[in-house]
Each structure stands twice: as structure tokens, then as C-alpha cells.
Give the backbone structure.
Amino acid sequence: MYYLFYGFLYLVSLLPMRILYFISDVIYGLIYYILGYRKKVVMDNLAIAFPDKTEVERKKIAKKFYHNFIDSFIEVIKLVSAGDAFLQKRFTADVTELNDLYKTGKSCQIHLGHTFNWEWGQLVLARLTKYKIMVVYMPITSAVLEKLFYKLRTRSGNVFLPATNMREAIAPYLQTRYALGLVADQNPGNLKAAYWLNFFGKPTAFVSGPEKGARAAGMPVMFACIEKPRRGYYHATMKLATEDSTQLCEGALTLNYVRYLEGVIRRNPDMWLWSHRRWKHTWKDEYAPMWIDTQEKRPPGGL
């Protein structure tokens, strides 16, 4: 089954990008106008994040998001046959601060959000830095898709560490110099252990693991964002958030990251993954010890 699926995708991936994007546009029409895939989730999320915008403005963002969302899958299919030269032409990055950090001899973390197209980005990054790139990811439940994505994601030599078994998976690399990529805007599994703060003005839980891991190791942290100058072309920027996480009080790194992420999303709102239910958890008083928003008081009780 896997080889049949891979063979089919290989043939599709040989098509020119203009044809692949035409296919993407057709799929967009089906997904947005006919199937309405997660449209209510997307529109509800946009209403929370941008209450000052009109319904028309939010629909415009939603439509652009769906185009980017489907394009990202088409672009992953292109990876089946596309070489490194193709990626290097279409995905550029400013990694000056990352490479300066490498000279200090320290490993680091890279925090980023679900902005398109992170799949291309991690492959290109391996060619731009001497760091060993490692990425924490959630394995796909489909065995066929998991095998395919793992093959594509690791083609540049990057190491993918399953979030379900991260401590054991990362152990062989702890004595090496690495950059650990963490998509740090996902929903946490344990709400009592999560950090809570206002995200777009609403109490939101964020995973505490990235910050706690960085603080425990005294590790530098980079923040990264991806922008899309035009269709099929991306540019990533990295900035040093802290050279020593132990110098920050608990929660400060996560707070700084979330404020950074908000800025990234506000500049290019159609580039973020609005189809996941980011505000599905309700604030409760029992989470009060984990409230880290120093600029605003925690809410009293439930919403």
C-alpha cells in the first residue's frame, strides 16, 4: 500500500508548480465552499482574535488561510521529487543570529508557531547552519502517512523526536551541539501543568515543557517566524530571545514567546493554522498558580 501511494505522489510531484497550484485552487473550492471543512472553528477563532474586524474582513482572512493551508499540502507532495536546489530557491532564511550563537558552543531551542510552510523550512535550515537540527513532532496515526512524512522530513538529515517518547529519543544527542525545534503553540495535554496567560485577550493554556527544558539546561532560545512574500516563496527570520534561560523568572520566556507570536500572526493572519481549536479550554480557578501574564490580572473563576 505504501509503495503504491508513494508512486502515485511521485508522479503528481513531477508536475510544474503552476499546475500543482491550479489543483490546489480546485481543492480550495471544494473544501471551503462545498465541504466547509472546519469553517466554523476557523471563523470562531478569527472572531476571538480579531473582534474589531468586520465579518467581511474575517472571511477574507479565512479564505486566504484555506488557500495557504491547501498549498502547504501540495508543497509537501512536491518534496517527493523536488531537489535541494528547488527548496533553496523558494525558501530563504536569515539565520545570522543562530549561526552567531553556534560559535558560543551552546545548543539551543527554536520556538515557532504553526505558520506555513514549516515543512519546507526545517529542510532548508539544515543547509544553512552547522547545528544538528532536531524537531519534536507528534507521530501521525496512519502508518502509511507516518512513513511518508518521516521519509520526507528527515531527507536533509534532521532528527525527528516523537513527543510521545522524547526523553528517550533525545538521549543519544545530549552531548552534541544541536538546535531543537519546538512548535510551541499547540494545546497542552495537562492543563494544571500548563502556563496560562491572555492570548489575543482571552485566557489560554500553553505548554510549559519548552520553557522548563530550556531553563533546566540553561539553554539559549531563538524565536522564529515565517513569511510568504508571494505564492510558493517563503522567508524565515530568527531572533535571539535569550542567551541564558536561567536568567529569566519562571513564565517569562513563555510570555515573551506568546507576545512575539501574536505579533507574527497580526502581521500575516492568513499564515497561521486557524483550523485547530486553540481556545477550546476554559479557565478555572484551580489553574491560578500557573497564571504568568504579568501585565494583566488573572480572571476570577470560569468564563
Remarks:
- The longest strand covers residues 221-230.
- The chain is about 45% helix and 20% strand.
- The mean pLDDT is 95.
- The CA atoms of residues 126 and 157 lie 8 Å apart.
